[in-house]
Amino acid sequence: MKTTRILTIAIVLLLITNLVLVAFMVMDKKKSGEKRNQGFRAEAPELMVKTLKMSDQQQADFKKMKEEHFKMVKPYFDSVRVAKRAFFDLVKKPDLNDSLMEVYSLRVFEKQSMLDKITLNHFRSVRNIFTADQQPGYDSLLRKMWSGRGKKDSSGKKEKN
Fold first, then answer.
1. Three-state SS across 82-144?
2. Is pLDDT of 37 > 50?
């Protein structure tokens, strides 16, 4: 009877320990997974500082430009999202015709196009804070960021940077 009780307590303690360890592993995977899912774009600012050997002034200018850019484009992201939602809500329309689909498609295109133009101008402005020697490195980092390091094209080949 005494042995059974000791074994029961030991099993319960081991079970609790295992549950705690599993909980820690799951929580840790979520944290590292969040960072991993952000990918190269999340690493780009730190990589720029290291790779391009940015001065303190360049870093401050870049940080300010980045913050201003995100403040400016947030409403555009929202409008693209709303336009896409309206476009894909057309799936519910039983009498959908090509001209209506085209109208909604153009709304998405116009909003996305404006966002792309603003973003291009932002990257051009950022490029201007670098010296002539740093600019090719910046161009290379941008290309990597846009191609998504290690991603494959439609043929299955890795994109060249």
1. HHHHHHHHHHHCCCCCHHHHHHHHHHHHHHHHHHHHHHHHHHHHHHCCCCCCCHHHHHHHHHH
2. no
